[in-house]
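Q: How would the structure tokens look for this protein?
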Amino acid sequence: MFPTLYSEMGERLIPTVIDHLEVCKTLEEAVEIINFFEKRGEISREYASFLRNNVSLLNSLIGKRKRGEYESRGLL
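A: Here is the predicted structure in token form.
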């Protein structure tokens, strides 16, 4: 349907759930992001469960990046 979309995007990438988790400020916000991505079908149920149950991983990701830093990493 969009044959040149990839070339039009260039080197930019779409942010993943991990990119969004790095912007979160609290654990509750991180769980809400995981639930949203799971509901939309962008991550599997197993991966969402892994992320929710791995609190140490979530704590290491939370607050790692400020909002608006997507452009500096080449993300949309």
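The chain is about 55% helix and 0% strand.

The two ends are 21 Å apart (CA to CA).

Upvote if useful.
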